[in-house]
Amino acid sequence: MYFHDVVRILKQQGHTVKIFTTNLNAEGGTDEKEVNDEIVYGFPVDYLHGSLAKRVFKLPEIIYSKKNKAAMAKLLDEFQPDVVHVFAIYVTLTPSILEACKEKNIPVVMSCNDYKHICTNYRLYHHGHVCTDCKGGKLYSPVLNNCCKYSLAFSIASAAEAYVHHFKNIFRKNVNVFMFESKFMLNITKEFWGDTFKWRLIGKPFHAPAFTPSYEYDNYLLYIGRLSDEKGINVLLKAMQLVPEAKLKIVGTGAEDSNLKKLAAELKLSNVEFAGAKWGDEAKKEIRQARFIVIPSLWHENFPYVVTETYSMGKALIVSDKGGLPEYTFEGITGHVYPADDFKKLSDLIRLMWNNESETVQKGKNAKKYADENFNDTVFYRNLMDAYNFAINKKPDFLHTSGIA
Prior knowledge:
Layout: H1 2-12, E1 16-21, H2 32-35, E2 39-41, H3 52-63, H4 66-79, E3 84-87, H5 96-103, E4 108-112, E5 125-126, E6 129-130, H6 141-145, H7 152-167, E7 177-180, H8 183-193, E8 199-201, E9 221-224, H9 233-241, E10 248-251, H10 257-266, E11 272-276, H11 280-289, E12 292-295, H12 305-312, E13 316-320, E14 335-338, H13 343-355, H14 357-374, H15 377-392, E15 402-404
Parallel strand pairs: 1-2, 1-15, 3-4, 4-7, 7-8, 9-10, 10-11, 12-13, 13-14
Antiparallel strand pairs: 5-6
C-alpha cells in the first residue's frame, strides 16, 4: 500500500515515475521494450523453495545481486532520474542497486517502513520479547537466538547477509536520506547507528478525507490484523475476561490462530468472536461499525495502517505503549495508551470506553479531525518533496519531475 500510494501521489503531481521491482513470474532483465514501460522487472531469486543445497547456492545473489545491480545501472542510463526512492529492497532487488546509483551519482532516499536496516528479522522482537541484541555490531545474534522465521538456516543466512552489508557499509554510504514514519523508528535507528545519517520524518501516504466517518456502531470493540505472537492478542484476551459486559470481535488470521482460540476457551470467554480474515471493503466495514479499536502490540509497531484507517472512519483507539503507537494516540482525546503487558490496565480502559459511549464517540470525532488535517496527500507530498530536495541538495524550483520508486 505504501509503495503504490507514493507512486499514485507522484503521478498525480505530474512526475514521471519508473518502477523497478521483481516478479517471480517474470524472467527479469531490461530490454528496450521494458524500459519504455512504467514497470521494469529485475531478476527474482526464489529463496523460499527448493532443497537446502539449492537455497545455499542462491545465497550470494540474495545478499548482493550482481544481476540486479547491472539491470539497475542500465535503467538509470536509460531513464536518467533526478532521484531514486527505494522500499524494502532486501533479498529481492538487494542493496546492490544502491551502489549502482552511487556509481551513477544519482541521489537515493530510502523509506524505512520496518526495522530490517538495523534488525535481521525486521521486528526487534522474538520468542515473546523485544530484542536489540544486534546493537553494537553483534550481528551473530540471530544465530544464537534462532530468531529469523524461527529457523536456524534462515538465521544463519540472515546473519551472513547482515555482515556483508555491514562491512560494505552499504546503506549509510549509498543512501542520501533515510525517511521515517515515526519518531520511535528514527530514534532507535540512532541508537544503533549514532547520529551519522541524514533523515526526514515524512509520515504515511494516506488520504483520510476520502473516507466517510461513522459515529454509529454495533455492539463490539475490534482487533483487526495478523494473529501472530508479537501482536499481543493474548494480553487482550486476558483483559476481556475482566470486562464481561464488553464484546470483542477479532478479525484476522495467522500462526497464532489455534493458540489464541485455545486460550479463549481456557479463559471461558463468551464475549469474544473470532471472525476470520477479511480484506478490502469487508475489513473497512468492520472498522466503521465497531465502537472502538484496540492495538495491543507487544513489539514496537512503527505506524500501522490500522491507525490511519481507524481515525479516518471516525473511531477511537486503545493502543499499547510500544513503538510509534503513542505518537499518534492522544491521551483522552483520540483514545488511550497503556503499558503493553498490563492486561488489568487494558481492561480498565476497555471498560471506560465501553461504558461511556458519548465520550467514545467524541474521541472518534476528534480522531477524524486530526486524520483529515494530518493524513492527506497534500501533507505527504510536501514532506516527500522536502526529502527529495534534501537528497539532491537543491531548492524546490530546481527539481525536475522524474524519479524512480
